[in-house]
Amino acid sequence: MRDKKSIDQIMSSLDNVKKNNPDVKFVDRMESLAVAYAFKSSYFSKSIILSIAASLLLLIVANIYTLSDYNPNSKEKIETYTSYSLVPINSIYK
Amino acid sequence: MVVNNIIDVSKLIEHDPLELRSFARLVSTWVYNTIYSYVGNKEDAEELTQDTLIAALGSLDKFRNEAMIKTWVYAIAINKSKDLLKYRTRKKRFGKIISISNRDENMQSYEHTEFMHPGIVLESKEQMKILFSAINQLPEFQKTALILSKLDSKSQKEISEIMNISIKAVESLLSRSKSNLRAYLESEDITHFNTFRK
Question: pTM for the whole thing?
């Protein structure tokens, strides 16, 4: 239990708190952070990231589709080889 | 360029480097002290000030009322501080459960933080330690009003704008916070600055 005088003293000390300012280094860091954030958000905005992701996906799909033609186990490929082998060599070098 | 704390939001949206730097400087001087008073340590105050800046920059395009930008930034900072304290309170409760089951003494280490407020002169540090412990026990709204009024020297009008309440409500909050503070000081022997109690 505190006496009235000490409580009054504690309450009055509330008026004596000086404003607490941030360090100069911290403020500099904040400035660089703002510029870096702006750069990041302008060059890596959602729409740009989405379009890059979509084109990458398209590229992968196109590659898979193209590569499937060269699959040696594919039935289609074997047929292609067969068709080539059916061409008489003489007809080419004549 | 920021002149007399007036910020050109359109330039900020266009990411004008000069305007961005000025805005960052203003944000840090505006909210750092308030956040510090809320969380009670330098590291958290700096981290939350940075978070406030990022949050403000991230939603600038939705913000149009240039005259209200300061109160808007303050509101972000206060919400971030409250979120951190809530998170720590939850962590502390969870930590207690773990410590009961595991009997791990280290879990108690974040119950009390060292009281460090650079705005307080050394001789009144002990008094302030007690005072801040009592402030941390106030209900959230009363605590916010008291911090803004006494520790951040904000007018009642500014507090009403930041907290989005009427001036009468601010007056009432301030008077209740003072009487509650006195009651805490009379009834309890507060010896630690405990950031995580409300």
Answer: 0.68
Interface confidence (ipTM) of the complex: 0.70
**Tokens describing residue B147:** 């911090």
Contacts of B74 (CB under 8 A, 6+ apart): B30, B31, B34, B148, B162
Dist. CA B191–CA B79, nearest whole Å: 28
CA torsion sign for B22, B24, B28, B34 is positive
User: Is A7 close to B182, i.e. CB distance below 8 A?
Assistant: yes
Q: Counting beta carbons within 10 angstroms of the beta carbon of residue A35, is it exposed (0 to 12), middle (13 to 18) or buried (19 or more)?
A: middle
CB distance A19–B130 less than 8 Å?
Answer: no
Nearest neighbour of A34 by CB, restricted to B53, B153, B186: B53
B6: helix, strand or coil: strand
Please tell me whether residue A23 adopts helix, strand or coil conformation: coil
Taking the C-alpha atoms of residue B40 and residue B32, their distance in angstroms, rounded to an integer, is 11
pLDDT tens for chain A, 94 residues: list them: 567 777 777 777 777 777 778 889 999 999 999 888 877 776 666 777 888 999 999 998 888 777 666 556 655 554 555 555 555 555 555 5
| Contact residues, A window 32-71, toward B, CB-based 8 Å cutoff | 33-35, 37-39, 41-42
Measured between beta carbons, which residues in chain A are less than 8 angstroms from residue B21?
31, 34-35
- Is B123 at the interface with chain A, CB within 8 A? no
Report the 10 Å Cβ neighbour count for B101: 8
Give the helix/strand (H/E) hosting B62. none
Q: How many CA atoms lie within 13 A of B94 on its CB side?
A: 6
Question: Residue B59: phi, psi to the nearest 5?
Answer: -120, 25
